[in-house]
Each structure stands twice: as C-alpha cells, then as structure tokens.
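Go through this chain for my students:
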Amino acid sequence: MIAALSHVNWLAVLAASVANFLLGAIWFVALVGKFYPIALGISDRPPEKPGALSLIGPFVCSAFTIATSAILLAALDVTRYGPALELGLLIGVGYLVPMTLNIAINPLFPRPFFYTALNAPFFILGSLLSCAILVALS
C-alpha cells in the first residue's frame, strides 16, 4: 500500500477535496441547513456564524479521506470509472456512513438516526464524486 503513494496524483486529491467542499457547502447550507439544528437538538438556539474551524476542519478531514481513496485506487490499479465508483460506494456505505452513526450514538446527539440520515447521502455522494475526479485526473 505504501508504494501506491508514489502513484497518487496529489493535484487530483486537491481538486477532489475542493469539489467535495463545494458539495458540502451546497448540501449543508442549501439542502439540509434548516434541519441540522433539529438533528443536534439545538433548534431553540439562535444560529451561530461558522468559525474558521468549522470550515477548515471538514476540508482537511475530507482531504485525508480523499487521499486515502486515491491511495486505494492506485494500489488496486483502478483506472476506469466503473470500478472507481464501486470503490467510492464501498467507502461511503461501508466506512463513512457507519462512522457517522457511530459518532452520533452518544448522549450529546439527541437524534442520532436523523443526524445520520442528513449526513449519509452527502458522504456517499462525496465519495462517489471524489473517486470519479481522482480517476478522471489520474
């Protein structure tokens, strides 16, 4: 796996990270933004302006996930869209969605399944989009 690092197109990782960030902006602001406070149990609070950490943090975390996807694509010698999308779906459904639910299952998340339902489609779409971009630019 480590040898695959030398076959990763890091510019493609950056491009996929930016695309995923833009998808997140659309998803969490325009599509599910009004439901997010309900999922978190804070709908009675006034909305807070997002700070730098709430913008930079998701970008960096996604970049690590996307870099890992790029390493897996290179290690598995995936160069076509079909297998890349299969891997993207596997990562989204097999890793990202269960981790989202796992994180939300604690006393601080009053509606873990609703929270997961809001996030899961984004993580699956983001993983598919990222793998498609990684293959297109590699």
